[in-house]
Every structure is written in C-alpha cells, then in structure tokens.
Amino acid sequence: MEGLSLHQAIVRCWTAKVVPRLQPIMQALPSIRVWELWKRINGNKYGDPVTINRVIFQISSSLQSLVNVRKPSLHKMPHNWSELLYVMENYTPALKITKVIWNYPDPGWIKVNTDVASRENPGRSSIGFVLRNEEGDIMYAWGKEIEEGTNNEAEVRAVLEALRYCLNHDYVLIELHTDSMMIKNVLQGTWTCPWNIDVYVEEIKELMTKCNIQISHTLREGNQLPDHLANYALDIGPIHY
To answer: Domain of life of the organism in this record (predicted)?
Structure first.
C-alpha cells in the first residue's frame, strides 16, 4: 500500500483478484480499518489512548466476526489475518444433495404445478400451470403473460388461475405444488399475507373451501414444465394444450 492514496487503497481492496467468497471480506476491510483508526484518533484526543496493536486486534476481530456470520459452517476461524485468508482461500464447502422427484398423485386426484417468469421485479411477468392425472398424463397445460407486477403477484395469480380452471372443470381433489415458499406459507396461514396480494389470496381461500386441496412447496427442478410454459408465454406468446 506504500505510496497509495486512501482512495486508491480502497479501490485496490474492492478490485483485488481473490476467490469469490473472499470478495465481501476484502470490500469490508477498508471500512473496518477507517472506523478503528477514527476511534483511535478520538481516544487519543479525549484521553483514552489506543495502541496500534489494539487497533489491529479490533480490525482482526471484526473481520473474524464477519466471516463467522457469512460462513457459519466454518468453525474456529483464526484471528490472524494471513491465516484467515489461507483458510478462506482453501475452504471447500460440503455439498448438500437433495433428490427431487415428481410423484404421481393419488388415485382420483389431480396434481397441479404452477410457476411464473419475471424479467424484472416489478416488471413483465407471465404465469403457467399444468394439470396431471394419477397416470401422470397431462390433462391441461397453460401459460400467458399478465400485467406487469411483482413476482409475488405473479405467483399468487398462477395459483388463482389454476384453481379457477380446476373448479370450472369439476376437479375437486387437488394436489397443488408451487415453488414459492412464501405463497405456500401465506395460503396455509403460517405467514402474514402481504397487502399487495391480499385480494388474490382471499379469492384463493374462498375457492379452497369448494375443494379438497393439499398445498406443497416444490423445488424448481420438480417444476420444469410450468416454468417452461411461463417463459414461453413471455418470450413467444400464450400457449395451452
């Protein structure tokens, strides 16, 4: 850092060629250093002197705490800066593998998968849903662009349109799968409903009283067809089978 201005030193920290997991640490480093130096200046000025070694210790402690927050799986992070860098550079996270399977619905039931596509949030949005029977055969698949809005508005609209279709065609035993954990928890009453989707949620809950429905969260890997339908509708145009 010899011969660099403060601005150049900060830029060098922000643009350092490091592994991605170290970038937030390097970018936080200038702020932590300046803060601790500012505290030392005020301590010396008002009669509570702080040594440079103490400043270095405080900086190291703050960086250690930051790593612990961002990487809680790492235990006993070293306090020394060079050792901390070494551990972070050589850290290999443990892989977590989740097996995702699309299961057939029970006899007599219809499985409904819903999804959306959004280019921005808020922005252009589309919705898609697909109905499959106990054989796994597609009964109906549909996708269309809707008015611009947030992704949560699109997610709840997809569920609403799917339920409307089911009840209009006398499908009342429904396994509903969405990859939006928020929508699933709102519909089950676990989370508070955001104000901007309250009208849609109220209508969905009214429709739910007219059928036997099970709502589940699915990972996107198990939701590929409605995802394709929603993206097709946004990129090409409405689609239904």
So the answer is: Eukaryota
